[in-house]
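Project standup — Tuesday

K.O.: blocked on the structure for the chain from last sprint. Re-posting the sequence here as requested.
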Amino acid sequence: MTDFAHTFLLLFGQLAFGGVFALSVPGFHEIERGFFKSTACVYLGCGLIICVGKLSLAYSALPGTLWNMRSFEGGLWLLFCVLCGLYTYTLWGERFVLRARAYLFTLLFGLIALSFSASVYRTAPFFSVETLVYPLSFLTSALMLGAVATGMSLGHWYLIELDLSLDPFKRIFRFYAGTIVVHLATLTLSLGLLLLSSHAATSVRELWTDHQTLLWMRLGLGPLASLGVAYMIWRTLQIPQTMAATGLFYVAILTAIVGEFLGRFVLFRTTLPL
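H.V.: unblocked you, prediction finished:
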């Protein structure tokens, strides 16, 4: 049962890392500081959820054991949270150098924590294609989640700053649309590479024979549906109508989260990073 919980906690870690990364897209000096403060706090909260969840599950599974793989994973997410908290704190001041360094180290250790979380599910040896496929799949998923969440948050900011330029919104939308395409391409490539792998080929065939409906739901309700919503957002921004685009970002974040929840269920059932 703890494996099930560990798998679904990953969504919070991906949202935390991807969201912090996506904060670099709109442009720090083009938007009032309050946007970054509120949004960074949300991502810090997501990081704390996966950190506390991983550490508590590791301790409950092996009480009295200080070091094991799961507790080390939780420790990496704890370090991410400390650095993300420091970055968030600097948003209330003018310590530019400290803020820049805290942001870069937050991304670095977030990437390390996410890659380690991916490697836990890898059954193949280190020198195998899985070593690249697992972190890459988790990373593209995280960036897509962060992009759509930041886009929705930024859309709400246009209700506060009525004279704000549309350029930041367009940039975050382009980033979001790009992450969907890259993530979908990564999923397709991952399936092909894993099918050729001697270690994961059996799991891929099992996915196709026993969980085919789950696979199509994961793709159809996730990245494919997100592509359709992204097209509608793009058409709305041509008007331009930021309020309608923000409403569509609500739909977009729903399709992204549903798709990734299904992806984590595929991971739980088959150990495949989809």
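K.O.: great, moving the ticket to review. The CA atoms of residues 149 and 209 lie 34 Å apart. The domain at 2-270 is CATH 1.20.1630 (Formate dehydrogenase/DMSO reductase fold).
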